[in-house]
Amino acid sequence: MTKKIVVTLLLSAILILGLAQVTSAALGDTLLKTGSTGPDVVELQTKLNYLGYSVGTVDGIFGLKTQAGVIAFQKAKNLSADGIVGPITASAINTAYTNKAQGVKASSIVATAQKYIGVPYKYGGTSPSIGFDCSGFVQYVFAQNGIALPRISRDQYLVGKAVSFANLQPGDIVFFSIAKNGVVDHDGIYIGNNQFINASSSKGVAVYSFGTYWKSVYLGAKRVI
Fold first, then answer.
1. Cα separation, 138 vs 174, whole angstroms
2. 91-103: per-residue pLDDT in tens?
3. Which residues are catalytic, by number?
4. Which residues are bridge partners to 126 per DSSP?
5. CA 46 vs CA 49, 70, 76, 97, 116: distances in Å
6. The pLDDT value given to residue 17
């Protein structure tokens, strides 16, 4: 193998390694400031625009508009308003972006669930055309929002992050043991204001409040968004 070929291969390997590192980078891995360019800046600009801190065109170039957006965000979050995106500012942007995205998704899930109020109960039912049982309803609503869930409520209980009753948010899945034996046999979707929507055998898809009865059979909740 000639020296020229060896050098070429080494340069190719270095280039590939560099591209892999860029691809795996995430907002917060690199200090960003005026003059910075690349995919991290694209991510920064995209998230700032989504959060309402308009930086204009997402072009991957950290210019004055991007700097102004960063400063506005930092002031809103009581951070040092230096226009530089270090670990603290990046973490705050990531958190705000995730929270807003989850809120939008949760609102969509609740709106989807409410569309089917009045659809009759059907044991084994998984669609509005034939009716729903409790877990069929939950599975269908989340599927309409791009989230795949198991078919049975007991299996749905194994998915996602556990949430305390005090921290319930719209879009969380709430689980019950109607038989009061500690085994999940019913679930629904929390919609806020101490209410949840579910497919019940007596009313079909309907909204219930967490009164004495439902609290007595409540087992827990999971967040999957």
1. 10
2. 999 999 999 999 9
3. 134, 186, 198
4. 132
5. 5, 12, 18, 10, 34
6. 40
Local structure of 78: helix, strand or coil = coil
Q: What is the pLDDT of residue 21?
A: 38
Q: Which residues of the chain have a pLDDT value below 50?
A: 3-24
Backbone CA torsion sign across 58, 59, 62, 67: negative
Query: How many residues does this entry show for the chain?
Result: 225
DSSP letter assigned to residue 220: E
- Our measurement of the distance from residue 38's CA atom to the centroid of its chain's CA atoms, rounded to an integer in Å, reads 25
Beta carbons within 8 Å of 180's beta carbon, 6+ residues apart = 216, 217
Look at residue 9 in the predicted model and tell me its pLDDT.
Answer: 43
Residue 196's Cβ-count burial label (10 Å; 0-12, 13-18, 19+) is buried
Distances (CA, A) of 170 to 107, 113, 161, 164: 7, 11, 14, 13
Task: Please name the residue that has the structure tokens 């929002």.
Answer: 145
